[in-house]
């Protein structure tokens, strides 16, 4: 029983000391030079980490190139020609894909402009890689886009229905003058 009481008292003391330490931290103020030095340290640390990462990536690329060169040197002349041919084919396929993507992107952008849609949709539509599917997607986007715009316009232009009109109890003053002369 007494052990429990001492434990509770100790816990309360720990909590109060933690609270006072937090309050002390909250009330501290820093000068501009202290803030600048902390920022400088953080930036320097981030730059060092980035530089280390870049260095590691560079070393990995160099090691990969060395391994490829060593394997290439072990090949016979005919195998080297085949490897060169495969490498050229891969480069050509990569270039062709880039050109096709660029051409498709231009086509998508023109279709979007033609349908009065934002060109920012083009990059996401490029992932489809099929012109017919892209055109279907553009037409459905256009339909949904127009529906959403029309709903917003209707909402903004919507007015309250007018109440029952007030009937004019007074006659037109000109009409009363005319009636006098009849």
- What's the Cα radius of gyration? 39 Å
Structural class: mainly alpha
**Residue share in β-strands:** under 5%
- Count of DSSP E strands? 0
Task: Supply the key terms.
single chain; 182 residues; mainly alpha; elongated; disordered N terminus
Structural topology:
Elements lengths: L1 H26 L4 H43 L2 H38 L7 H5 L4 H27 L15 H8 L2
Question: Explain this structure to me?
Answer:
- 81% of the residues lie in helices and 0% in strands.
- It has a domain at 98-153.
- The protein contains six helices and no strands.
- The longest helix has 43 residues, at 32-74.
- It has helices at 2-27, 32-74, 77-114, 122-126, 131-157, 173-180.
- It has 182 residues and is mostly helical.
- Helix 3 runs parallel beside helix 5.
- 4% of the residues are buried.
Task: Explain briefly what this protein structure is.
With 182 residues, this protein is mainly α. It has a domain at 98-153.
């Amino acid at each position: 029983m007494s052990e429990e009481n001492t434990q509770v008292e100790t816990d309360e003391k720990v909590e109060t000391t933690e609270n006072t330490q937090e309050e002390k931290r909250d009330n501290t103020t820093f000068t501009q030079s202290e803030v600048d030095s902390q920022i400088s340290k953080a930036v320097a640390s981030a730059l060092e980490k980035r530089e280390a990462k870049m260095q590691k990536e560079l070393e990995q690329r160099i090691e990969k190139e060395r391994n490829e060169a060593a394997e290439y040197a072990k090949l016979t002349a005919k195998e080297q020609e085949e490897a060169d041919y495969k490498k050229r084919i891969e480069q050509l396929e990569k270039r062709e894909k880039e050109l096709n993507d660029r051409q498709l992107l231009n086509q998508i952008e023109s279709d979007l402009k033609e349908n009065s849609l934002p060109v920012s949709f083009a990059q996401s539509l490029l992932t489809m890689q099929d012109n017919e599917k892209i055109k279907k997607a553009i037409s459905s986007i256009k339909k949904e886009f127009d529906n959403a715009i029309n709903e917003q316009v209707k909402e903004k232009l919507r007015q309250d229905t007018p109440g029952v009109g007030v009937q004019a109890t007074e006659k037109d003053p000109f009409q009363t003058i005319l009636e006098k002369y009849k």
